[in-house]
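Hey, quick one: can you model this chain's 3D structure?
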Amino acid sequence: MRVNVAGRTLSLSNLDKELYPDGTTKAEIIDYYTRIAPVMLPHLQDREVTRLRFPDGADRPGFFEKQAPQGKLAWVPVSPDGLIICNDLPTLVWLANLAALELHTPQWKVGQEPDRVVFDLDPGEPAGLDECRAVALAIRDRLAVDGIEAYPKTSGKKGMQVTCRAPLDSRAIAAEFAKAAPQLITDQMDKKVRPGKVFIDWSQNNPYKTTICVYSLRAGQSPTVSAPLTWEEVESGDFTAADLNLRTVADRVEKMGDLHAGLLT
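Sure thing. Here's the predicted structure for all 265 residues.
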């Protein structure tokens, strides 16, 4: 099926194919990314995009793709290192058509210094979202002491992320929390020390790492979204990852706007 998207001609295929076990089709995924584009594209702007693709479905093994794929359309921009840059709706729709469900970005724009710092909160069972909320609130309050505003979001899976503007020594902050609350928090990557604790993954700010982009879908049993939260929601805990999904987030944005707009530079 050939369509015109903002002046670019795209060939879309297998639109009725179910890519999630709950029956979500590729057409619905493309529709979601089209609807969310006005708030998502500014967060993708001029950043290299690593894709996690699931051509056989979100509950089947997928693969990471860093370099531009074969068959890249001539007008799709790439960085000097050959990675896709998604600055417009046609590129976003093209990626969705490739079953690039998850879009991951670094904390900097191409050719520039980092403009964001992220704290990736990963709970080790039996810890879960409630423990992540507690740590997120503590990070918010710690950053506020230095006059830094923090922005929370779900990971779209079991954890959360808290993001602020750079510069900030994320490793030092994580170590500070791990020392203050060793029964709840760890800053160590060794999985053997993480059960029952929230791992503050400061390494997401390293040059070779990327983080799930805000508003990106996540693979799994249902089309959850890495969605922005208000701090009131984090305090109340009246949400689950499953609540924030392909069918709810775009409507939520229409009512609330981009809760991460303060991160845009």
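One thing worth noting: The longest strand covers residues 116-123.
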